[in-house]
Amino acid sequence: MKLKIFIPRDAGAIAVGADEVALELELCARKRGVSLEVVRTGSRGLYWLEPMLEVSTGAGRIAFGPLTPGDVGSVLDAIAADGPHPLRLGLTEQIPWLKRQTRLTFARCGVIDPRSVEDYRVHGGYEGLERALALTSEAIIDDVIKSGLRGRGGAGFPTGIKWRTVAQANAVQKYICCNADEGDSGTFADRMVMEGDPYMVIEGMTIAGIAVGATRGYIYIRSEYPHAVEAINAAIAGARRAGYLGPGIGRSRHDFDIEVRVGAGAYICGEETAMLESIEGKRGVVRAKPPLPAHKGLFGQPTVINNVLSFAAIPFILAGGAQAYADCGMGRSRGTKPIQLGGNIKHGGLFEVAFGITLGELVDDIGGGTASGRPVRAVQVGGPLGAYFPRELFDTPFDYEAFAARSGLVGHGGVVVFDDTVDMAKQARFAMQFCAIESCGKCTPCRIGSQRGVETIDKIINGDRASQNIALLEDLCQTMKLGSLCALGGFVPYPVLSALKHFPEDFGLAPPRLQAAE
Amino acid sequence: MALGYEAWDSERAAEIIAELKSHEGATLVILHALQEAFGYVPQDAIPMIALALNLSRAEVHGVFTFYHDFRKAPAGRHVLKLCSAEACQSAGSDALAARAESTLGMTLGETRADGVVSLEPVYCLGLCATAPSAMLDGRLIGRLDATRLDALLVEAQR
């Protein structure tokens, strides 16, 4: 008997023991004389069940988890006997948490071998590129526009419009830059895609290159993601060997190649112009816009900059899925959003779903509430620069405009849950402090304002002329919002003011009036 | 000197620089490679990079000091990074950091005087669904609790 077993090589699974489980599996199999084929996949994104192991059967893959090395022997026996096991989860695809998702971008993540270009092709990979090679630049961009795809990094700018601007620019050298500096706490979707389905990102960038006439691409990956760097580098090498990168890609007249650049621990380099500076080998200092990167970007040349998830959505769209993509979602937010549930949450992980799902469904229903078992008090959506939402606003649907209307942001789709032990004044202070540490220093509202923000919040917490200092803090936030050059200083008022507005009792003030109707 | 790194050698550094200087915008690429080889980037390397890339020393120094990752002195023999961002905070990372500081007798962000261990905050390892998390000498650890942390602290002081 030869068993085909799948165990993630995803960093999140490795962090909770996937490598130890894989090692123990080899040992147990040898002892039992069972021959194994082990595939190290990405993660399915059901992190509370990691490390998860899947075995291929005639009916589909059957999952077991969460495993410790001590469970592996009995799991192998259960597989051999086709018998029950307390950690048997049944058919993976039938696990309700996975089944109720709409996985377009994450369809292959956790399924395929991320080191194998062949496995990628078998699962529909490079169909988008093959079709794009037969289309004109305009037709490719029309497809992207038709899909309604908006930048998944957070700002939500229509991707097709950006591409068209670069396509229409005249230059000898144009660039494609993939922003993989996923620094927002609570987000890990880029990391999962890079580790679990790296060829999809490369294919998306390649299609962008063909569409706008760029021959060089860079992926800027943060240094905190060494596994993603390794996975993308391996995939770039694999794509070159298979003729999907380099001169004459896919036997066409198009040349395109990609180089990985690794960040160095600066949060600001997730801001697109700071990222360009960093790739150019400079300090990650934000540039004033205009000129837009689409006109003058990397090394002063027209440049497409998109987030990992934006590029990752492209192969599906170009493989004839533009309409299917646009059919998902609500309002002007089309397609699916890979939402990341993290922090103090019972069922944390990657939940890809059409726009429109409410925050409450995500936190209570899908996330199962807190891991600590205590009541949920606050949820931060959209990273360190996103607003804190109280339970009264859990009816907010996931949609760029709906979140903006409630002084929040969807951002990169990170949802971090806090229980009732959280001190919201401390969280507000942390937001300012983080901004002070990570500010690039170019503009005064961000550089000085964040430092003064920390000091002012300290005064409020200490009861030092609280009402005057709150007025001062609100005024400071207004200045930062309107006067900062980029989203770091400009958005840090979101967590600060939302904490103050919804949780004033933590600042020593009277509790809030009910605000649900806003 | 941390394990696994070469002692500083300007000829070896010159080789690394020569090999990488033709990359577009090579400064960070070179700084990373030097740190990977030597464990830190000594002051002597800055003018070498400047000369190779036709930049001023001030420009290279400016880049070197901008990024949190680059070290001007060797780290401890072990480097323990504790994720200190919001997702880990919600799962109790502040208390764990305090526990680590007290056990190790040092403050977050320092290298201990005996050179055995560096304790550093990191703002998100992207393991937010298995928070709190840490990284010891490049190895990732999720679902950190006091028991698991104590084991890491023993390992970090070897």
Automatic annotation (TrEMBL), chain A:
GO MF, any single term: 4 iron, 4 sulfur cluster binding
Classification via CDD domains: TRX_Fd_FDH_beta
Cofactor(s) the record lists: FMN; [4Fe-4S] cluster
NADH-ubiquinone oxidoreductase 51kDa subunit iron-sulphur binding domain boundaries: 425-470
InterPro entries cross-referenced by the UniProt entry: NADH-UbQ_OxRdtase_51kDa_CS, Nuo51_FMN-bd, Nuo51_FMN-bd_sf, Nuop51_4Fe4S-bd, Nuop51_4Fe4S-bd_sf, Thioredoxin-like_sf
Domain of life: Bacteria
Keywords: 4Fe-4S, Iron, Iron-sulfur, Metal-binding
SUPFAM superfamilies the UniProt entry points to: Nqo1 FMN-binding domain-like, Nqo1 middle domain-like, Nqo1C-terminal domain-like, Thioredoxin-like
Family: Belongs to the complex I 51 kDa subunit family.
Physiological role: NDH-1 shuttles electrons from NADH, via FMN and iron-sulfur (Fe-S) centers, to quinones in the respiratory chain. The immediate electron acceptor for the enzyme in this species is believed to be ubiquinone. Couples the redox reaction to proton translocation (for every two electrons transferred, four hydrogen ions are translocated across the cytoplasmic membrane), and thus conserves the redox energy in a proton gradient.
Protein's UniProt name: Formate dehydrogenase iron-sulfur subunit
Species: Rhodopseudomonas rhenobacensis
